Automatic annotation (TrEMBL):
InterPro entries: Azg-like (IPR045018), NCS2 (IPR006043)
Keywords for this protein: Membrane, Transmembrane, Transmembrane helix, Transport
Name of this protein: Xanthine/uracil/vitamin C permease
UniProt-annotated location(s): Endomembrane system
Biased composition range(s): Basic and acidic residues: 511-526
Species this protein is from: Penicillium camemberti (strain FM 013)
């Protein structure tokens, strides 16, 4: 068996497929050591099982916005939570998003592998979909702008992201953000998702808004809550059976299954209530394998944005910047883990094509009705291996996203305080955008003050542990413009081809050093 596997790996490596994907023994000058056909197939299957949960979770979160369904005025008091016709429409939107999520994830991941040759999967991003559903559109359409206008913002953001990538500005924007805030963004999104999973609107109802305090313990049935304040009677707190089902089945049981890396937990923790809506869900579930055409969310953009200018702009800017941060951070981490980072330019092979694929898929995904697409960290780490679905999965995913807290530089207050504000403001204001704004502004004020005092006193007054500060610079090695622009400016016909490939064929190490020195010089003066 081993001999057959080895022969097959060798045969594929020496084929045109092997040279295209730079497999080991392909004879390509940039072949990737340790890569083989069966290893890549096995890794692809592991990635699929690690991120399959996004199909269910993204559909649940996105459809909570109500999609294209219209809540009639007489039912808006409770946001149509008791309107069966509206809820059935939302259920159809949920099924549309299931199909859309699977389609765009398959399409984006395929082209990421084929064109950029990176083992990275694309799908609607966790965090971005929550911001899309609960802040921009709002639960059942109670947010800033309608669902169709939000899709327009996502569509435009994809093309702007594409332009920034081609011009190299994307790399500068990502590098300009301090490392502590980059890490804190993911943690803040994790806590944001956790609060969503614990709330009544789409979660298990463990907490609710309060009068004397921001939130308080809840856990009663929805019909027992005070219609004005939303509070639970003291005698009914923590007595809702649905909440306990969510805690034990969707939380503790799922976590135990994840401890043992057990696949298929998605089936164990799925619950269908015995109602008209639950019966419809179970009928769809019993089909096992079926294709549901996209009927409500396909090309649902609304280009009449005149009356939503301010909110449209805020949503667009947040989508753009968070997409840049998410995708850049994930791809950079994966390339660093694989040892593919160029320490001189802090870039990696295939980065331009990777960002182009991501940008195009963002716009295509919006045509399907999904929030912005992002690269998934599960592509390499498999942090969500094992199934999880339903509302409590928001809490589980939030816990996984918070593990980056250990990597924040807590030793220097100029890094740690902005990071903490980013983490805290996101869930407490129910907004990713406000968290980023708080973190960036506090970083500028704190570190700008230190810089001014240091300049005024000629370096005599400065923090005693400033040497522990994370390094930061707005400059990019090689210049702002990407390598392909510099090659085009030199008149190189095949400007899209990496320079180091030509060096390997024609000049050896000394020529490569000379080429790197020349590109560095041209990059600083272009």
């Amino acid at each position: 068996m081993y001999d057959w596997v080895h022969r097959t790996n060798l045969w594929v490596a020496r084929s045109p497929i092997g040279r295209w994907f730079l497999l080991e023994n392909s004879g390509h000058p940039r072949e990737r050591k340790g890569s083989s056909f069966f290893t890549e197939i096995r890794a692809g299957l592991a990635t699929f099982f690690a991120m399959a949960y996004i199909i269910s979770v993204n559909a649940t979160i996105t459809s909570d916005s109500g999609g294209t369904c219209i809540c009639p005025p007489e039912s808006q008091a409770d946001l149509c939570n008791s309107n069966t016709a509206y809820l059935l429409c939302v259920q159809e939107v949920n099924r549309d998003i299931v199909t859309a999520t699977a389609a765009i994830a398959a399409l984006g991941t395929f082209f990421m592998g084929l064109l950029a040759n990176l083992p990275v999967a694309l799908a609607p991003g966790m965090g971005l979909n929550a911001y899309f559903a609960y802040t921009v559109v709002g639960y059942h359409g109670s947010g800033m702008i309608p669902y169709s206008v939000a899709l327009t913002a996502v569509f435009v953001e994809g093309f702007v992201f594409l332009g920034l990538t081609l011009l190299g500005i994307r790399q500068w924007l990502a590098r300009a953000l301090p490392a502590s805030i980059k890490l804190a963004t993911g943690i803040g999104i994790g806590l944001y998702l956790t609060l969503i999973g614990l709330s009544y609107s789409v979660g298990i109802g463990l907490v609710t808004g309060a009068v004397d305090t921001p939130i308080e313990l809840a856990g009663c049935a929805s019909m027992l809550r005070d219609p004005t304040t939303g509070l639970c009677p003291d005698s009914a707190k923590m007595r809702n059976p649905t909440m306990w089902i969510g805690i034990f089945c969707g939380g503790i049981l799922t976590a135990c299954l994840m401890l043992y890396r057990i696949k298929g937990a998605i089936i164990i923790v799925t619950y269908f209530p015995y109602t008209e809506l639950g019966d419809s869900m179970f009928d769809f579930f019993k089909k096992v394998v079926t294709f549901h055409p996209i009927t409500h969310t396909l090309v649902a953009q609304d280009w009449d944005i005149a009356k939503h200018r301010g909110q449209f702009g805020l949503a667009f800017i947040t989508f753009l910047y968070v997409d840049i941060l998410n995708t850049t951070g994930t791809l950079y981490s994966m390339a660093r883990f694989a040892g593919a980072i160029d320490e001189r330019t802090q870039d990696f092979e295939g980065s331009a094509l990777a960002y182009i694929v991501d940008a195009v898929c963002v716009s295509i995904g919006s045509l399907f009705g999904t929030p912005p697409i992002a690269a998934f960290i599960e592509s390499g780490a498999g942090i969500s291996e094992g199934g999880m679905t339903g509302l409590t999965s928001c809490v589980t995913v939030g816990a996984l996203m918070c593990k980056a807290a250990a990597e924040i530089n807590w030793r220097y207050y100029g890094d740690s305080i902005p990071a903490f504000l980013t983490i805290a403001i996101m869930p407490f204001t129910y907004s990713i955008a406000y968290g980023l704004i708080a973190g960036i502004l506090s970083y500028i004020v704190l570190n700008g003050t230190v810089w001014v005092i240091e300049k005024i006193t000629d370096g005599r007054i400065m923090p005693p542990n400033k040497d522990e500060k994370d390094p930061w610079t707005w400059r990019i090695a090689g210049g702002l413009f990407p390598p392909w622009v510099r090659r085009l400016a030199r008149g190189k016909k095949d400007f899209w081809r990496p320079e180091n490939e030509d060096v390997v064929h024609s000049g050896g190490l000394e020529a490569q050093k000379h080429m790197e020195k020349r590109e560095m010089t041209e990059g600083n003066t272009v």
